[in-house]
Amino acid sequence: MDTQLSKADLHIHTVHSDGIMSVAAVLEHVARTTDLRLIAITDHDTITGALAARSLARAFGVDVVVGEEVSTAEGHMLTLFIDRWLPPGRPAAETIAAVHAQGGLCIPAHPFDRLVPSMGRAGLSRRCAGVRLGEWPVDGVEVFNASTLLSVSNTLAGRLGEALGLARCGGSDAHSLATIGLGYTLFPGSSADDLYRAIRGRQTRAGGTRWQVGNFLEVGRYRMREHWRRLRGRVVPAPDE
User: Which of 26, 29, 32 is nearest to 67 (CA)?
Assistant: First the structure.
């Protein structure tokens, strides 16, 4: 692997799904307070936030990959380098084919986390045998997810990635500004094209630190406030993008 490595966070959520920060806030935070070279916005089952981030990215000096965390019938999957929305609920094999048809990449998210819908529980190990092979020809595996409560989930994902010869990727699963960059992917080069080639060529590494208690509490308090506002009929519009 080249000596020049850049850092990317490939798993970030905004107010367009269940994150608590606007797209503009994400970009400003990344530009001012992190060493991330690029990010992927991967809201649940929508690319609205990712497209907005891509349109604003130049003003902040941040490279953005359009992504989506798709709720397949067998679990959550990160899809990267896409241009068209992917509907939830379809079989994983069908979603993977649709992603590859538009030149995108597929990375099972938190594959062994038992607290969220994960593809590991649906037979990921036996259903994908390598890059673009098998029933589920995924391109990589999220071997480090900063939001997992049990570290063994990431350990198992790492073993799977190594056994199958897949690109090993990391992400923060950020839902708040403080969690952006806690998980990351290292890749040779600096551009989005370099990242794409690195994932395809299995030249990535993952790392980071897991969320702290305060991070979970911040997101939880926000969701509780929003829940009560909705119950009282006082829904607050999402921040301007």
Answer: 26
Q: Tell me how far CA of residue 152 lies from CA of 113, 114, 175, in angstroms.
A: 9, 11, 22
Encode 65-95: b = buried (16+ Cβ within 10 Å), e = exposed.
bbbbbbbbebbbbbbbbbeeebebebebbeb
Give me the residues paired with residue 64 across strands.
Answer: 39
**Helix, strand or coil for residue 105?**
strand
Amino acid 100 reads H
Amino acid 80 reads L
Three-state DSSP class for residue 61: coil
- Residue 2: predicted pLDDT: 44
Residue 140 φ/ψ, nearest 5 degrees: -170, 180
pLDDT in tens, 155-183: 999 999 998 889 999 999 999 999 999 99
Amino acid letter for position 62: V
Q: Tell me the β-bridge partners of 168.
A: 141
What domains can be seen in the chain, in order of their start residue?
5-212 (3.20.20.140)
